[in-house]
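Help wanted!
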Amino acid sequence: QKEVEQDPGPLSVPEGAIVSLNCTYSNSAFQYFMWYRQYSRKGPELLMYTYSSGNKEDGRFTAQVDKSSKYISLFIRDSQPSDSATYLCAMSVANAGKSTFGDGTTLTVKP
Amino acid sequence: DGGITQSPKYLFRKEGQNVTLSCEQNLNHDAMYWYRQDPGQGLRLIYYSQIVNDFQKGDIAEGYSVSREKKESFPLTVTSAQKNPTAFYLCASSPRLEPQHFGDGTRLSIL
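Answered by r_m:
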């Protein structure tokens, strides 16, 4: 069983929809949680970074962490065609330096 | 501009040949990483280095080698022992205990 499981997708939504992207994990030592966005043929770009349970908001993006359920989510409000990309969750243990990534969810936002 | 530069963007390898992928960063980050990404899959860690002249194997190090002689440089050699080298290779760097930032990758193919 993988340490990090990500909803596989693909996901297709109309412009303006609210999108929910989800990951679960099994390692209770994970303390740092990241979301990356990856456009085709490009490297991943860091979107959100949090180290505590609860919500963190940045513009149209909200990252949610529930450590008791070992579950994290990324919500995108008012989705735009430019949000069409693959989204990767990532997690790390404190002081470990390296991260474990989910397999990614490909999102398409249709105009 | 500060960033991570990977070169070349595309690389072709003949059977039995070693090839070296370049990764340079001018962000003054201590740690550097190499990942492999296959279609529809997440990132798998090949090697990482948290300090000059020191590096550790990741999950899929067989058939690869690295060096870290300078803080800003972390080249990856794909040796002839790697039997399935066709993939998208991503280099990342980070300050201590901070999320990783990625270059735009090198796509390696077999001739």
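OP: Thanks! One thing I noticed: Chain A has a mean pLDDT of 93.
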